[in-house]
Amino acid sequence: MDDNLNQNIFIKPAVYTASVFSKNNVSSKVTKLMLNINSNSFNFIPGQYINLQVNSERYRPYSISSGKRYLPTLSLLVETGHEGLGSNYVNSLKPNDLVTFIGPAGKLLLKSYLKPNIQFFATGTGIAPFISILDNLCEKHITNNIFLHFGIRKEEDIMLLPELEDIKSNLPNFRYKIYFSKPKNPELQPQRVTSALPGLAVEDTDFYLCGHPAMVKEVGETLLSYGVLEKDIVTEIFSRPEEY
Questions:
Q1: From residue 42, how far is each of 12, 21, 49 by CA, in Å?
Q2: pTM of whole model > 0.70?
Q3: pLDDT value of residue 238
Q4: Of the candidates 180, 13, 174, 181, which has an alpha carbon nearest to the alpha carbon of residue 103?
Q5: What is the distance between the alpha carbons of residues 137 and 5, in angstroms, rounded to a whole number?
Q6: CA 166 – CA 93 distance, rounded (Å)
Q7: By the 8 A CB rule, do 203 and 115 touch?
Q8: 59-160-143-199 Cα dihedral, nearest 10 degrees
Q9: Which residues of the chain have pLDDT under 50?
Q10: Torsion angle, CA of 169/207/161/22, rounded to 10 degrees?
Q11: How deeply is 240 buried, as exposed, middle or buried, from its count of CB atoms within 10 A (0-12, 13-18, 19+)?
Q12: For 135-139, which contacts have Cβ atoms below 8 Å and span 24 or more sequence positions?
């Protein structure tokens, strides 16, 4: 395995500033925020996040959704369809505005040795770190069997299809499925990512979970009941504190 996939590298978090490069809606509730970092020293491991300063005292964590090759530009996926400190702040930003963040941080890191099969489970903006990870795997020409289970609520919540299709064209053994928990189309069967669990093959597989706490908990506990070892399940929970 390529040494560049070795995740046992500690990158000390630091304070950085960046300017807003662009901001656009990728779904009915999610904004893609692109930042140009005012430093060439920032580095991160795919799967990590930054803490964006949203007022004089508060920070909000957002996973990096872009690959390392794009530095010093990075992308974030932010839920902006609700009232909250983070969402209101991001909604207020304009191109060339200056922002401050601390980073990198986070433990959703690929193992230094990848098993033959890799299963990603994501809900909502929990897909962000997996886009960064998958970009890295494309760069390394990884041939492991990779499957992404991506859960959203409704059709208007679909996002990043061009990115997923591009990854699919560059990773020969990558596949993905989108699950709608509350679809508007009556022809679509309501499903959650947990519906993928019954009968799921777990041998020689690493599992990575990111998103809503209930999903991460249910998928993790189910995998453990199937005999998957705890060390083979890597998790990151996206929680939303009050006034997020």
A1: 10, 17, 12
A2: yes
A3: 76
A4: 13
A5: 9
A6: 29
A7: no
A8: 90
A9: 1-4, 241-244
A10: -110
A11: middle
A12: 135/46, 135/66, 135/67, 135/68, 135/69, 135/167, 136/5, 136/46, 136/67, 136/68, 136/110, 137/171, 137/174, 138/67, 138/167, 138/170, 138/171, 139/67, 139/69
Find residue 78's DSSP bridge partners. Answer: 31
Note whether 63 and 51 are within 8 A (CB): no
Q: Is the CB of residue 113 less than 8 Å from the CB of residue 142?
A: no
CA distance 150 to 129: 12
Cα–Cα distance between 31 and 156 in angstroms, integer?
A: 13
111 contacts: CB under 8 Å, gap ≥ 6: 7, 206, 234
Decide if 165 contacts 136 (C-beta within 8 A): no
Alpha helices, DSSP H, located in 3-113: 85-92
Q: Taking the mean position of all CA atoms in its chain, how far away is CA 178?
A: 15
Of 129, 118, 156, 157, give the one whose Cα is nearest residue 61: 129
Q: 115: how many CB neighbours lie within 10 A of its CB?
A: 15
Burial class (CB in 10 A: 0-12, 13-18, 19+), 231: exposed
Note the pLDDT tens digit of each residue in 124-144: 999 999 999 999 999 999 999
- Give the DSSP H/E element, type plus range, for residue 117: strand 117-123
Question: Whose structure tokens read 């005292």?
Answer: 57
